[in-house]
């Protein structure tokens, strides 16, 4: 019995949905409003779940009554179950350093979002310096990766590929909608190709086609 609980948008839960899709696992995709109440039927929040938030954080993954949080921790756990880490310890190191670098960029965007009045100097640094530098670094990393194939580790998809694709697309879309400028990944074919490979993975493609519009 698995329940994934998050707000009614992609955010930090979408990569977990990708991993669960690839793992072929049936689960309850519970979506709540900012007060923790159900946003749509027939989805319901289990009785008392609002009091069972480890560290008061979403998303949460409930497994047979035990509740866990933190997106990357959940993904690593699921990746272990579904063999989505890579074949060696070095593979794991190689791919997960990309995850951490994506997180650095995501956290810069979140910091900007939470800045009162979107201070112009910080906004300019993010749009004109921080984001382009990070995206260029990702592009160079993909260019020089030692593995042939569409994914970070070649022909083998990992949760790191899913993390990369989900966050660059979703956070980039947020920036375009609310900040007037995105990551400009369309200028980087290697990045586009990696994201496309992830989104074309059959289970993920099926999920993208039927997921709620948010």
Automatic annotation (TrEMBL):
<dbReference type="Pfam" id="PF14497">
    <property type="entry name" value="GST_C_3"/>
</dbReference>
<dbReference type="InterPro" id="IPR050213">
    <property type="entry name" value="GST_superfamily"/>
</dbReference>
<feature type="domain" description="GST N-terminal">
    <location>
        <begin position="1"/>
        <end position="86"/>
    </location>
</feature>
<dbReference type="InterPro" id="IPR036249">
    <property type="entry name" value="Thioredoxin-like_sf"/>
</dbReference>
<protein>
    <recommendedName>
        <fullName>Glutathione S-transferase</fullName>
    </recommendedName>
</protein>
<dbReference type="InterPro" id="IPR010987">
    <property type="entry name" value="Glutathione-S-Trfase_C-like"/>
</dbReference>
<dbReference type="GO" id="GO:0004364">
    <property type="term" value="F:glutathione transferase activity"/>
</dbReference>
<dbReference type="Pfam" id="PF02798">
    <property type="entry name" value="GST_N"/>
</dbReference>
<dbReference type="InterPro" id="IPR004045">
    <property type="entry name" value="Glutathione_S-Trfase_N"/>
</dbReference>
<dbReference type="InterPro" id="IPR036282">
    <property type="entry name" value="Glutathione-S-Trfase_C_sf"/>
</dbReference>
<dbReference type="InterPro" id="IPR004046">
    <property type="entry name" value="GST_C"/>
</dbReference>
<dbReference type="InterPro" id="IPR040079">
    <property type="entry name" value="Glutathione_S-Trfase"/>
</dbReference>
<feature type="domain" description="GST C-terminal">
    <location>
        <begin position="88"/>
        <end position="214"/>
    </location>
</feature>
<dbReference type="GO" id="GO:0006749">
    <property type="term" value="P:glutathione metabolic process"/>
</dbReference>
